[in-house]
Amino acid sequence: MSNLYERTDIYDLLENEERHREVRRHWEKVLEGKNIHTMLDVSIGTGNLTLPAAELGVKLSGSDLSSAMLRKCEEKAQAKSLEIDLRESDFRELKQNFSETYDCVASTGNSIPYVTNEEAEAGLEQMDALVKSGGYLYFDMRNWDKILEKRQRFYLYNPVFDGDTRINFLQVWDYNADESMTFHLLYLFEKDGKIFQKEHFEEHYFPIKRSRLLEKLESMGYRKLQVMCYPAYFEEVGPDKADWYCVIAQKE
């Protein structure tokens, strides 16, 4: 089975200008009142979730395990005349690839649960090592507490259109015996009422409770923890009920 993170043509299909504006508004809310001028996104992918922060004046750096994702991110940054430092790195090995410190170190796009809970905590320690004194650590992810409570099996997205092609996207979630989860990502390409292409990818996750992540941040000396819905400007939806949430905390 092909790897979604080597298929940037598929990965970015759901992205559009409306989504870009939503992410930009999210960062406007998150950055409000904070002294953040430099940021490292340790799971930057193709840049969809942090390039909008760079447009707001933040000097952005990024890392990812996928060289294909990084190439696409560089293309997007160049198209917007944004300078960005990109490096191939596992977020569990950041200190091997970065010596700089940043006003904010972030992990975006539900990347932390790709590894076991213990490795996730080790990853937060690696991120912390690159945060300046008084700086911030940020992450966003799916609401795993809600997922484990509801045990939802199917997750549907609104269709998108590429010319006269309709693209339907569906996720099917398997709850494994070892308490991990397998997400089946199904893409159906339809034209003139007929499906002419199917793509199937799998992602493996280790659900992690929010309380465990917050306790880890506190144990590393982070205070002023803000837990918000994702996107953060959806203030009418609390983080407990939202499908996604984000956390930003300040280092003492």
Structural class: alpha/beta
Q: Strand-residue fraction?
A: 35-45%
Largest sheet: 7 strands, mixed
Mean pLDDT: 96
- Radius of gyration in whole Å, from Cα? 18 Å
Number of strands: 12
Enumerate how many helices there are, as a single number: 7
Spans of at least 5 consecutive residues with low confidence: none
Shape: globular
Account of the protein in words:
The N and C termini lie far apart (about 45 Å). It is globular, with a radius of gyration of 18 Å. Helix 5 (about 115-130) links the parallel strand 4 (about 100-105) and strand 5 (about 130-140). A 7-stranded mixed sheet has the order 3-2-1-4-5-12-11, with helices on both faces. Strands 6, 7, 8, 9 and 10 form a 5-stranded antiparallel sheet that branches. It has about 250 residues and is an alpha/beta fold. It has helices at about 10, 15-30, 50-55, 65-80, 115-130, 145-150, 210-220; strands at about 40, 60-65, 85-90, 100-105, 130-140, 155, 160, 165-175, 180-190, 195-205, 220-230, 245-250. It contains 7 helices and 12 strands.
